Amino acid sequence: MSDAMQNAVQDQDLSAAIAQQQISRASFVIDTYKWLSIAIVSFAVLSFVLSSLGVGVAMVNFMAGSKYMWLAYLGGFMVVGWLAANMADTIESRAGQVAGLGLYVVAEALMFAPLFAIAAKVAPGSIWAAALVTLTLVVALTVTAYTSKRDFSFLGSFLKVGGIVALGVIVASIIFGFTLGIVFSGAMVLFAGGCVLYDTNNILRHYPTDRPVGAALHLFASIALMLWYVLRFIMDLARD
Question: Considering the chain, what is the average pLDDT of its residues?
Fold first, then answer.
């Protein structure tokens, strides 16, 4: 076989491999957003059930007496969140991955329950407004990730440092009893936007294509973070 023919065969093999990778990535993206949709709907339904049962109000009353209860609450959520993400990212069986996503959705619903209860009292209508704003921002960031030729992986290191700093500020506010305020909420909305952009970029370019459930969990976590601080921002505006 001549060198020209060998090069032609190699080019065909390379083109076929690239085409297969593109097909695999496209299927992965579809599966990821399918699981993300399931997580969002499940979160909304579970949040509605918890609110109807008065769970959020009960949690607020229970934890109001001690700042250390809020710290324990935050710490418990972080542990459960880490466990759920680890399940979705490392367990080989699809059932185990889905169980991790389900656990995370339940943890988020419980985390939001007291915030939703407070929001319903101090700023009626703020929950729906926050959901609409969050949806708009997520769509805009998703379009940006899809249409931009830039790889946003560089955001990862900045987000890690920012997350550690933000967590430290939150813990300090609980311990020392100071209010973070609207500026912090606004900054965290920007931080969450960076997380959404980073996760979407990873889904499009880097995330293992055999882990759509894990990818959905990470993106859901970023969207939930954005919803939390958009709602906090709106509540701060209502108080002012």
Answer: 85
